[in-house]
Each structure stands twice: as structure tokens, then as C-alpha cells.
Write the C-alpha cells for this entry.
Amino acid sequence: MIRTALEQISLWAIPVLLVGIPLVGMIKKVKVYDVFIEGAKEGFQVAVRIIPFLVGILVAIGMFRGSGAMDLLTDALRPVMNAIGFPAELFPLAVLRPLSGSGSLALTTDIVKRYGPDSLIGRTAATMYGSSETLFYVLAVYFGAVGVKRTRHAIPSALAGDVVAAIVAVTICAWMF
Amino acid sequence: MLNYIWFALMAIALVVAIFTGSAAGVTKGAVDSAKTAVEIALGLVGIMTLWLGIMRVAEAAGLISMLGRLLRPFSRLLFPRIPPEHPAIGAMIMNIAANMLGLSNAATPFGIKAMEELQTLNDEKETASDEMVTFMTLNTAGIQFIPATMIGVLSAAGSKNPTAIIATTIIATLCGAVAAVSAAKILQRFFPKGERAQ
């Protein structure tokens, strides 16, 4: 029931907002088209402003993955993961998730196909993918849009969230499925 | 910090390539990623233009500040130093709501708008403010109610019950979000702004 309601909201949210917001504007006597154009002018500059940040981050991650360093990192961290009981099949996904969106989507799809979509491993992989965003992409886009270069505690904080989300995903799936 | 991580990723790639002979892979990784990055950024132009325009209308109609006042308890908890009627609060709420509904196309422009508003309150323009970091961690946590992409992947692989992962995903993502925001709140005092900021 709740799920159907959420799906309906997702389906209608955009058309309703696109009409509803200018409607309130009309009632408040706002020159909606003029104001829209004024705000929309920024769109292109924002997208272009992100480019250097995104190229910098994605190239570094692309080189790292292209060298095969990801496999070495996974191997190096394996004893730690085994010690805390993290499933070996899912560990590469946990490492890749914050680094690359397209890469972790491909890996998740691969795991789901190999172990089956209704298997514990398959469902846990899907839960892990769905329970966080690609850290370095978000970092590049959001800080890039405003030209922030010193990100302070952003990366450690976000990584802490990713680690907790991955551990909870494994624990909760093992318990529920 | 980003200076070190950025350099380390590339330097490690080169060292690994020397030992494993994967230089061609490193080159391909660099060239392909540069192309992808520009495609992603330019792919945002249309949707960004649309939503930034609509956001300006919402602001002029007083909807953004209304949203901030309505969700005052939320904003006071996470962003105590920003007044609830400030447009940053409204934009952040729009971003989080869009993320929850899985509307990532709209969430990114709202999020960028929020960052621009937070930047107006930031005294050091090249250094992230505490509020910016807290807001970013909420986004990397990827809070969403319906993991549509994964339900699609499971269905395509022939799952009998692809929506089984909804509950587990919500629990995991909420725990991750709480952890990320708590970490941001705790760590902010150890990463001061100014000369020593990395």
C-alpha cells in the first residue's frame, strides 16, 4: 500500500511541480516566464563549471581502475574483511561503490546474474548498491558547482556513512532473507 | 585532503602498471574517463536549466522560504546556524525530497542550487563550510524510498520478488545517513577552516 502510494508520488511529482510552482507564482502576481528565464540562464554556466572538477576526479579513478589496482586493494583488505565476517563475494562491490557509479552498477548486475536475483548474495548486492550514492561523483559535482577546492572532513564523513551502510546491508539481509 | 587522494590514485595506478604491465589500461582509463566526465556535465545542461528556472519561480512565489519554515525542526537539528527562511534550507529540502522519491534528475539541480545558497553564507569561498559538508554527506548517503534501478536489475535477471530489497535498502541507507551526518558533526572541529584547511 505504502509502496503504491510512493510510486504514484514519484510518477506525478515532476508534472505537478512543473505546473504547480508557476501556478502559485501566477496567484502571487509573479511574472512567471520572465523569472523562469532569469533563473534558467544559470544552467549552462553551472554545468560547464563542473567540468574541470569532474574530469579531475573521474580521470584519477579511471586510471586507478584501469591499472588493476582495485584488485590489489581488494586482496590487501581481504584479511580484515574475513576477520569481521564480511562476505568475500561482496567485498569488491563495497570498495567500488563510492568510487564509480557505472562500475559498481555493472558489478552488481554481474553478481545478481551469477548468484541469482533471489539469492542472499544477489539481494545483498542490490541492497548495497541502492543504499548509497557514488561518493566521488557527488563530491565533484556539488563542490565543483560552487568552486570549492578544500573539502575538509567531507570524504572521511561520507566514507564513514558508506562503511556503516555496507555493514548494515550485509547484516540486515542475512537476517531477513 | 583531495590533493593527496587525487595524486595517490594516479601514482598508485602508475606503480601498479609498472609491476603488472597494465600501462595500456591506465591510458584507456584516463582518456575514457575524461570523455565520460564531459558527457556527464554537458548532459546536465538541459535539466539544470529547466529546474534552476523553476526554482527561481518558486523563490519569487515565496514557496522556498515557506518550505523552510514548515520543516523548521529538521533544519534546526541539522543546520542550526542557517535561518529557516533562508533559501538554502528550502533548496536542501527540495533536494532531499527529490532523492527520497528517486527523482535524481531533479535532485541534482536542487542540490547545486542549495550549494550556491550555502556559498553565499560561506566566508571562505574555496573552502567547504560545515553546512556544505553536512549537506553533501546527506547526498552521498543516497537516501531513497524506492531503489528503482536495483528493482529493475533484479526484475531483468528474472527475480520472483524484486521488491523484497526495498525494506533492507531503506534501513541500510538510513543507518548510513545517520552515521555520515554524525561523523560530519563530530569531525568538523578537527578540520578547521583557514590556513590549515586541506
Observations:
- DSSP finds ten helices and no strands in chain B.
- Chain B has one domain: 52-190.
